[in-house]
Design brief:
Blueprint lengths: L3 E7 L2 E2 L3 E2 L3 E7 L7 H94 L3 H14 L1
Antiparallel strand pairs: 1-4, 2-3
Helix pairs in contact: 1-2
Length: about 150
Amino acid sequence: MGSGTYRFLVKARTNEQDISPAASLSFLINPPWYASTQAIVLYALLALSFLASLIFIPRRRFKKKLIKSKEAHQKVVARSEQEITALKNKNLETEIVHKNRELALTTMNLVQRNELILKLQEPLHKIMRKTTDKVAIQEIKRINSLLN
């Protein structure tokens, strides 16, 4: 029998002619526990939680992977920036060394030039003291002023 409310009617017969009035008995058959209202609500909640897990678990995994990939990208960018900075620093150091060499060479050239000028000025002064020719003295002064 299925679940529901039932009514049981009974008549009794005594000798073949006497029939008693009908007596009735009402009774209820409850549904089995797995078909009860509480069980159906539980089934619905389980089904909804299963569907939610199908949606939210992959979404959460995707977000975690996205965060990890962003962190990895930031690490790569930071490492690249450090390498670029190191290369720029190395380039600047090389440029400083080159400029220092250039400055040293220029300084040496100036020192040699001054030594040469001093070497030239001494004989010119001797010639100027020994010479009485005014034209020669003027030319020596002009050369001396060009050397200074």
